[in-house]
Amino acid sequence: QVHLAESGGxxxxxxxxxxxxxxxxxxxxxxxxxxxxxxxxxxxxxxxxQTSTDGQTTYGDAVRGRFTISRDSAKNxxxxxxNDLKPEDxxxxxxxxxxxxxxxxxxxxxxxxxxxxxxx
Length: 120
What we know:
The chain is an all-beta fold. The chain has no helices and eleven strands.
């Protein structure tokens, strides 16, 4: 099993920065991708940024150019650097790991979520 532990959320003023961190533990050799999603009250989860083991990254349209995802494979960790934060970035942010169990089965593992609030 893989477990994810997030940290780094909080309150920040518009235009400020925050860095979220997520560290995986357990059977981490089976992880093939890690990502950050977010959920605003009343909405579904939205992709923020994703990174795969081959180094490819994908960003959501709303954050491209402001957020940067980075992965430390040695530490089984993924960070999200968030710059120029806006009030509409306020949400609960979730770390995600795609874990390959077998050739035909993938497990979706989620962290507990961390609140990011952008407000003056």
